[in-house]
Amino acid sequence: MNWILVYEKELIQNHLVTLTDERHSHIRNILKKDVNETIQVVIPFSGNFLFRIQSTNESSTTLVELNSLPNILKPLSIHTFFSLPRPQTGKKILHLSGAYGVTSIYFYATESKNKEYWTSPVYTKDTVSYLETGLSQTGNYKLPDLHLAQSEPWKPFLKSWKGKVLILDREGENFTKSLDKNQKSFEEILFVFGPESGWKPDDLLFFKESSFTRVSLGNINLRTEFAFSALLHQLFIRN
Fold this sequence. Notes:
Blueprint: E1 4-5, E2 16-19, H1 22-30, E3 38-43, E4 47-56, E5 61-69, E6 79-83, H2 87-100, E7 104-108, H3 121-124, H4 127-138, E8 145-149, H5 154-160, E9 164-174, H6 175-178, E10 189-193, H7 201-209, E11 213-216, H8 224-236
Parallel strand pairs: 1-3, 6-7, 6-10, 7-8, 9-10, 9-11
Antiparallel strand pairs: 2-5, 3-4, 4-5
Helix pairs in contact: 2-4, 2-8
């Protein structure tokens, strides 16, 4: 945790915040910070800040805002769609999304067998916490917009997308060639990741009939979180 995440609603008069949870423990036991030392703070949707430790004891740490800092990271304004992954994979996707500051994440059960994943705490109660770990690691201040589509059909959603839909598929065209070399903005594109077992023939036919472009990140099969990381890296260096 390189940055301490604090929400605007936690701030009280004079830009003070008192922490009593794991953030307090992290400051005291991991960072080993004491009174009058400074802490890097990220406030979602506000930016990066420098806070000073006003007081600390066994049970709490009180921070006071000193000044704002230049934003450490420019959020990556993209929209992403995932065939609902296994919970352990979902954790990594959420963390990466928070770290890079993607605009939105859509989880849909594209296969009957992955509907059971909806019962996991990753998708029922702990989801936002995995996004928050990404913000705390990089200092990104943009909390992604999360959509857990537990009962919605996925194909009509893709059809309704107003911008461009890019289907990640090993058999697709070269990813870098599918984008304009000078393209810096990806805000209208929906990047679609399928199940790790691959797209079914009916899915591929649907993509063709819908005129969706299939793009490939390479000639090897990648686990979803690695493919996502590869995509984020390629887009980030263009950002």
